[in-house]
Write a structure and sequence with these properties.
The chain is α+β, with helices and mostly antiparallel strands. It has 11 helices and 8 strands.
Length: about 270
């Protein structure tokens, strides 16, 4: 006589694994009521689904930024999936937040994937969820940052996140770090300041400026000076500390931070967007 799973058993397995009702019922009946065996069956199903979907694009997902209690380490991770529908699911976002919290303890994605998570490894959990959800689930982006007075900002919809580190933990530093993180998320600066802009970007900007000036018929002996002026304007508009604050449009980010404390500066940031 085949085993018939009770509603209570199905509910217990669903709560433990996140699997659907029918999948949980079938796993329990296949396992003859053995709870641990049923969990293993669902995991194996997840591995099978993961293998079948390994070539799929996981271009949607939730981006989560976290900082630790000491505000001296921050992390951004992206939990990727295939569709926007799954990315907005409450349980999916909850999983992304739990993984980001755990990620604060590690320096690399590889370390995180091997870490224990609800009785299994993170990697096994992602495989399990691939089976439950029916979409490829993976950790895409993984970034960490260390410093003082760190704060994080996550844009509505969990599609953009940023973490900012300052030079010291003065009164009001964490609050202004949040404002700067919002700036980073909104304006996507190319670098912290002009000294950190890649030379290839500088060369491209100068080349574009020179070509425009030649096309406009500017005298050859003036082109280089004007091009350098355009480059300075590029730095002002596209490097974080020189950008106008999105809060008032007049004060630079650098001055906004110094208003909290004259010695306070922005030391670094990380940003990621789906």
């Amino acid at each position: 006589m085949s085993y018939k799973a009770t509603a209570a058993e199905v509910s217990k397995l669903r709560n433990a694994t996140g699997a659907g009702m029918m999948d949980s019922k079938k796993a329990l009946e296949e396992a003859g009521g053995d709870f641990d065996k049923a969990v293993e069956i669902l995991r194996k199903k997840g591995q099978k689904v993961a293998a079948n979907r390994s070539d799929r694009e996981s271009t949607e997902g939730a981006v989560i930024a976290k900082v630790n209690e000491a505000h001296n380490k921050g992390v951004i991770i992206a939990l990727n999936c295939e569709t926007d529908f799954v990315a907005k699911n409450e349980d999916f976002v909850k999983l992304a937040n739990e993984l980001a919290e755990l990620a604060l303890n590690f320096s690399t994605k590889e370390e995180l994937l091997k870490a224990p998570f609800h009785g299994i490894t993170v990697e096994e959990k992602l495989t399990e969820q691939t089976g439950v959800i029916g979409e490829k689930i993976e950790i895409g982006n993984f970034q960490t940052i260390e410093g003082s007075a760190l704060n994080a900002y996550i844009h509505a919809g969990n599609r953009i996140a940023a973490v900012v580190a300052l030079s010291g933990d003065h009164d009001g530093a964490k609050e202004v770090a949040y404002d700067v993180a919002m700036q980073v998320a909104a304006m996507n600066p190319v670098a912290l300041d002009e000294t950190q802009v890649e030379q290839s970007v500088i060369d491209t900007e100068l080349s574009i400026a020179r070509e425009q000036l030649v096309a406009e018929g500017k005298p050859e002996n003036m082109i280089e000076n004007i091009a350098q002026g355009k480059l300075q304007k590029f730095f002002k508009e596209n490097t974080l500390v020189h950008q106008a604050s999105i809060k008032d449009g007049k004060t630079s980010v650098k001055d906004m931070v110094k208003a909290v404390n004259p010695d306070l500066t922005v030391k670094g940031y990380i940003r990621y967007a789906i």
